[in-house]
Amino acid sequence: MLAPDTKTTTAPSPDRIDQLVAAHKPGHGLARPFYCDVDIYERDLERVFRRHWHCVAHESVIPKPNDFEVFRMASEQVILTRHADGSIHALLNVCRHRGAEVCTKDKGNARVFVCPYHAWTYGNDGSLRAARLMPKDFKREDHGLKTLHVRVVEGLVFISFAENPLDFTEVENLLHATCGQYGWGQAKVAYRQSYPVDANWKLAVENYVECYHCGPAHPEYSQTHALEQPLHMIEALNAAMEERTCALGIQVGSGDHWQTSENGKETIHAFRYALYDGVKTGSQDGSPLSTLMGRFTEFDGGVTSVHLGGTSFLVCYPDHGMIYRFIPKGPEACEMELIWLVNGEAQEGIDYDLEKLKWLWTVTTDEDKSIIEHTCAACARTISYPARSRRWSRTSCAISTGISTRSAGPDAARALLCRNTANVGNLRCPFRRCGFDAEAVGEGEESLKACSLPAGTRARIRAVSSPTVLQSPFGQS
Ligand code: FES
Ligand SMILES: [Fe+2]
C-alpha cells in the first residue's frame, strides 16, 4: 500500500505528497488532491497497482489450450493466455522490437502472436519464436514478451506487475478457506459487466468498503442483507448463520490481515455476515438463483466477503459468486468490472435465469456508480474543500496513507437519523434520498414519523441513534 515515507528524519519531507500524507488526520477523509491530482494518481500506480496483486479473471474465461484474452489496467494491456500444457501466463502486450501492440484482438485462440509491424512471432508463453533477418548474434531468448507473475487460486487468476511480488501465502490460505468451500475452482463465468465511472478509483473503492450508505442508497440490497446494519447489531443473526453453516459440516474461514505492504505481504480481509431470516441468497425475493456450489448441500443464509490487495473484492453465496474489480483509468476515471460465477455444471435457462442472477448487483452497482460520480463532482466543484469525514473508508485510507480507520465520529447518530428522515428540509442528498439538514429536522421521534422507510428499518435507526452504539458501526471495513 502507499505507505508514508518511513525514513527517520527530523526535517519535514520536501515531497508534496509525503506532506499531504503526513497531514492526514486518522479517522478523517483524505484531502481533496488524493482524488484528482495527477502526481498522486501516478504514485497510486507506482505503489498500489505495480506493487499489489490484482484479480483479473476467473480462469474459465480461457478454458481451452491456446485461449487468450486481453485485459486493460491503467495504461497497461495484459494478454492472459492458456498454454497448450494448461498453464496460464500474463504477458505485456508490447512488442520487444519497436513497442507495437502484438495482439490486436480482445480475445481468441492462438498458439502464437505475430506482431503486425515487422512480424516478430511470440509463443503464448511469451517466448520469442521468430524474428526475421536479425544478425547472427541476436539472442531470441533475451527478447521474449515481458511476463508478469501469475497465481491461480480456486479458479481466480491473480497478476502482479512487481519484479518481486508481495508474499501471497496468507492470501492463498484464506482463499482456500473461503472461496474453496464455495467451489470456485469448479465455477464458470455466467456474466460480466463493466461500469465506466467518472471518479478517481479510490472514491469507488471507499464506497465499496463501507456499508453505512447501504440502507439509504441500496434499498434492494438492504431488504435481504443484514450488513446494512452495523456488525454489533447483527451478532445474533450472524451467530445463527454460523450455526447453520456448521450444521452443514462446513467451516468457512475468516480473518483480518489488512495491512500495508511494508512487511512484504499481500493484504486480505475475509468476513461473514447473515442474510435476513428466510433469505437464501442475493436475489430479489431471497429465493435460490442457481444450483448449489462447492461443499454446500443446503443454503446457510450467509454471505462471505473478501477484500484483497485494494482492487479485488469477492462475494460468495452458496449458489453463485461475484468478483468485483476496480480498474484505474486516470486521475478522475476508473472502471468497475463485475463478474458473476455459477457452478461449472449449471446451464443457463435450466439451472439459472440470467436476468434474475444478475439483478441484485446490477441495480446495486447502478446506484453506486451514481453516488460515486455525485461525490466526485462535488469534490471538483468545492472551492474550499471541507474537512469531510469519510468514516468506514478503511481500505482507501490504508491504501493512501498506511493508516487504518475504525472509529465513528460523534455525529454518527445524527447523520443516521438525518439520512432516513424523509421530506423534511430543503436539501436532498443523493446518498440519503431524504432531508439533509439534521438540525432542521431534530433528532426525536417526530422526525422518524416523517420517514418513509419500513417500520423495521425505522426501529433499527432508533437503536443506532443511541450514543452508546457509536464506537464500531460497520466494523467490517
Ligand atoms: S514492432 Fe513488433 S516486430 Fe517490429
Ligand atoms: Fe454501495
Model description:
This protein has 477 residues and is α+β, with helices and mostly antiparallel strands. The protein has three domains: 54-150, Rieske [2Fe-2S] iron-sulphur domain (Rieske Iron-sulfur Protein, 3-layer Sandwich), CATH 2.102.10.10; 169-377, Alpha-Beta Complex (Naphthalene 1,2-dioxygenase Alpha Subunit, Chain A, domain 1); 412-469, no CATH class. Helices cover 26% and strands 22% of the residues. It contains 13 helices and 17 strands. The strands form three sheets. A seven-stranded antiparallel sheet has the order 1-10-9-4-3-2-5. A seven-stranded antiparallel sheet has the order 11-17-16-15-14-13-12, with helices on both faces. Helix 4 (201-209) crosses helix 8. The longest helix is centred in the C-terminal third of the chain and has 28 residues, at 354-381. The chain is globular, with a radius of gyration of 24 Å. The chain starts with 15 loop residues before the first helix and ends in a 13-residue tail after the last helix. The model is unreliable at 1-8 and 386-477 (pLDDT under 50). FE2/S2 (inorganic) cluster (FES) is lined by residues 95, 97-98, 100, 115, 117-120.
